[in-house]
Specification:
The chain has 654 residues and is of the alpha+beta class. It is built from 21 helices and 27 strands.
Amino acid sequence: MVNANHGSGGDADSNGLTRRQWLALGSSAAISGLAGCGGNNPDEDVTLSNNPSGENTGGEGSPVTTELNIRAPVSWQPSQANINPFTDTKNTEFWMDYIWWESPVYPNANGKPIYWLADTIELKGGGCEVHLKLKENYTWWDGTPVTAQDLHTAQRIDDYRVNMGPDQTDDSWEVVDEYTLKNVLSGPANPSLQKSAYLSPVVKHDYFKSWLQKYEDAGGENAIKRVTKELQEHTITLEDLTEKGLGCGMWKPTQLSPTKAVHEKYEDHPRAGWTNLKTFNWHLISEKQKAIQALNTGKLDMGDKTITQAQSNDRVEVFNRFGTSSIVKLSMNWNNEHLARRSVRRAIAYLLDYEELVKVIKTTQGLNYKPRPTVTGMSTKAANQWVGESFQNRLINYGSKSRPEKAKQVLENDGYSKSGGVWAGPNGNRVNGLTYLTPPWNIYETIGNYVSPKLDKFGFKNKLIIPSSSGFWKRWTDTHDFDMVNWFSGTDHPANAYTTVGVSGIGKYDEIAATSKKDGGGCKVNRTAPELEKPRSNKLNHPIRPKFPKQVGTVGNGGSKQTLFPVKWGNIMSQTQSEDEVKKFAKKLMWYTNWQVPHIGFYDETRAFWGNTDKFDFPTDKVDGHSNAEATKQEHFANSMEYFAKGHISAKTK
């Protein structure tokens, strides 16, 4: 089904990914895409609340309200929505799907799987066979059970729609019994990644089986394409969703208007008893100023944007803050002759004052992020988990405060000189006219407006470009028409942090290294180095197999060398069953990133959520007052949508 990213640090924005890209990017892609809200406690996995005990203060009395009001930050016409999950032109945001449907799992902010439909996910056969056991108490809104057949139909239709049929994919699906589905992979999968990879809403087999039959009856590629065209043009309204029982989530849409979507609780949902709420009003407010007005006039009970206004509002308070495994960073295009030089990239790393930047963001956005101590490609939390502090202490230390003299030194050592306030390279070409791209979302605009003048003043002349959302996506994912760009990277697992399928990782290399073959048959980790079509990447002009020092912390080119094999090492990390092996290659890739500086991390992201704590109980660092509370505590480190959709918010009682 259609998957999408979400604008980090801003309001919703989507960009389609193929199923292969989605799985390759790993679990953090989805959840990191929701990043950008933060708070004052980035170091610890704890939440803050005015209810520190974490107990449900409501008791057994009557709730003070059965209704909750939240903001959907979109301009959306529900009556015009086609919520067909298989169309590429649906005009909904991907997180809407997870209100109405369920997914086997949903990763939290640190890539940990939250089990929704799935009861267990077990890897067998050396990691090449995955058994998904679904819970047996989920039903569609017409009362029929959600079964393995429903999930199987969703996957098979996707195989045809995306890949021209299951015989063209590298895995297969089999219904084992009513509630168990087997996914056979072409090669082994790393358990930490695979258990979070099943992020795709289930669909009702009884409704979509006719489409699956059309695909199976189609003969040849053209016939399959015709079925896909018909399927994508097929319209499913929100009324169809409810009247035909196509949803299985806890909340059903009941009243729709251009400004509001009212949802009522589906009482037969397994978690319906976890919350005493009956209704939530989804206010469709795309403009920030209107959202602030709604907050200030008491129309919203919970939110995760406009933190500054929430902190000064006496009706609400920030109830939840926690660090994530995402970093916001500056990526650089090596097609620019200056940015292709390591000395220039290092100069920028030395020049920027990350401590000052987070202070600016705190002042303008009300968010207190943790500055990066040096260039690693991973968040501090993830880096400590996978490589340890002792290894990081050996890396080149670019510092969290500005070091302009150091920046000047590395440039002069590489033949750069400064004249008329502008640096020029060894060949006399000036560092002038750099295009600095940033998405049109509040925090990123703040970063661009801070960093761009700093580079300008130092002598790297640049122009800050803030396009529309669609314009940004085109330049970021398609044309790569930029010299520098602000974006984020999900780093919950080293295979995600150093992914080779996108610019948000170490680079975009798979497009010229797709000829890799496995070493022998059977379920074995692919340890071969792919044959490359060319020595550099198509988009960013990165060298694919550069030499870099074996000695960690070496600043120059001296000493013994080793060769970078990013695709090979990425394959191993995403397939091996050995945590120690993941750590071994994570260290190599972290050291290469630190030495080469393909991108510069600004800060570790956190998230912050506010709400009316006088009327509602929100998730805290303690377990909830319901069955399976300990097992679902990981759900507290997610997003407000997940809190609400899964029953973690209740009204206080009288």
